[in-house]
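Render this sequence as a predicted structure.
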Amino acid sequence: MNPVSLVAIDDNPQSLDLLAAALDGEDVTVECHDTPEAGLDAVLRSRPRIVLLDLMMPRMSGMDVLGRIVRFDPSIEVILITAHYTTESAVEAIRGGAADYLDKPVSIERLRERVRAIVGQIRRREDTQSTAGGAAGELFQFHGIVGRGPAMLDVFARVRRIAPHFRTALVTGPTGSGKELVCRALHDLSPAASGPFVVCNCAAIAETLMETELFGHAKGAFTGASQDRPGLFEYANNGTLLLDEIGEMALAAQAKLLRAVQNQEVQRVGSPAARKVNVRVVAATHRDLRAMASAGTFREDLFFRLGLIEVRLPPLRDRADDVPVLSRFFLDRYAALYGKPAATLSRRAETALMRHPWPGNVRELEGVLAYAAMMADSNVIEPADFPETFTASSPPPGQDPVLRMSLEQIQAYHARRVLAGAGGDKKLAMEILGVSRATLYRLLGADKPSAS
């Protein structure tokens, strides 16, 4: 393969000499320019894959040049370099389209490491585009996340950009799409990686207990508070706190959370003392927080604080390229877990998986293949090895029972399919269908709601 083209733009010739020397021997060709105008002309003329760009230059700032480059070709990877680093300016640069943001004096090893990572990313994209799809292609993993399609490669690239700089981040996507894995990757690639990674499931904590869980309590704060107890913010000090399902948090708790995130200090329930913390906060949700903020069910100021940087995960139905490699990954995992030989998918089984709409996303796919790996009698998985709920929801072509149903029967049939795809989670099924609990039970033909 030809070396990857790189243009360096800096008004200091000595800095350019240093950058060129640092990248000598790497898989790149370096072209240097000491004025922003000449550098921008070179970018527009030769369309390089990577640009190293000084932030502070006369007549045209690095942010101005970045904006022109992004408008010209957003696929060009731009690394901003500055002697005036702040977290806020780094976040602004990344939101503006920069791939990374390095401070001067530039660490030679850090620069090489970052350029190598981008070159590797470019090469993987080239491999993905040139490889005929299916499980025969290379299996890509990124901090435990499996994917090789363009949608997930974009997610991986965004996580790499964000992780070194974020203080707050928002990870969104449908249930079962892998949001917690992305949150963990943000922590592992951040400067806080050696610190704790603490998870708070906001949907599982009662409104009356949320403040105590997050901020702790002092001895005697309420009946049963026999000793001081730190909250999750203090447990996550010098690390990362994941607020999973943040959309389920009550408004009263959101106000106190906003203060803790903004000021990096917490106050235990029943104590007048404020305690300083150093915590990166990642929030995850399958809900549309922007719509909730507009409707008044989520604090707008908290949404803008958390959503300053957002990573969106696509549903599995939009990641068709990833179904074969995910299937291979899960079959290998569960074969090892069950002590069985590694299995492969028959052509009919693979076709059935590709045709399925996956309302439960990657989590549903894992469940189907875990069942198949356990139940299969041979090392070739057939559609008959899939659970009944899956085969019922994926009829063979020409045998679709929907064609012989009334409209009322179709509604009930679809409701059962969605519920099965959601793993029996009625709340998730209600959200997917956009119906009330009573309507769901009517569609399922239940006489009355059960305790579940």
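Summary. Residues 319-394 form a domain with the Helicase, Ruva Protein; domain 3 fold (CATH 1.10.8.60). Residues 108-130 form the longest helix (23 residues).
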